[in-house]
Amino acid sequence: MRELDQLLERYLDRCWLEAGFVERGVFLRLLESEDDKLWRWFLGYDTPPDVELAHLVERIRALPH
């Protein structure tokens, strides 16, 4: 989905270089999730069961367009 790609690219462009080792690992785990789950998380319909993933999803959602 192009919209998901844009959200994730925004994170990579703005946050990846400053992200620590742990956050980068969480992001890589996020990428392993199925697109339909990612879509529901980023639209706010569901929350990831993993707290670290949930925090990162919220951080990405809060990035300015």
From TrEMBL:
Q: Which Pfam families match?
A: Sdh5 (PF03937)
Superkingdom field: Bacteria
User: Per the database entry, which stretches of residues form a coiled coil?
Assistant: none
What is one GO biological process annotated to this record?
Answer: succinate metabolic process
The UniProt keyword set, sorted, is:
Chaperone, Cytoplasm
Q: Might you report a single GO cellular component term? A: cytoplasm
Q: Where in the cell is it found?
A: Cytoplasm
Q: What does this protein do?
A: An FAD assembly protein, which accelerates covalent attachment of the cofactor into other proteins. Plays an essential role in the assembly of succinate dehydrogenase (SDH, respiratory complex II), an enzyme complex that is a component of both the tricarboxylic acid cycle and the electron transport chain, and which couples the oxidation of succinate to fumarate with the reduction of ubiquinone (coenzyme Q) to ubiquinol. Required for flavinylation (covalent attachment of FAD) of the flavoprotein subunit SdhA of SDH and other flavinylated proteins as well.
Family listed: Belongs to the SdhE FAD assembly factor family.
What is this protein identified as? FAD assembly factor SdhE
User: Which species is listed as the source?
Assistant: Cognatilysobacter bugurensis
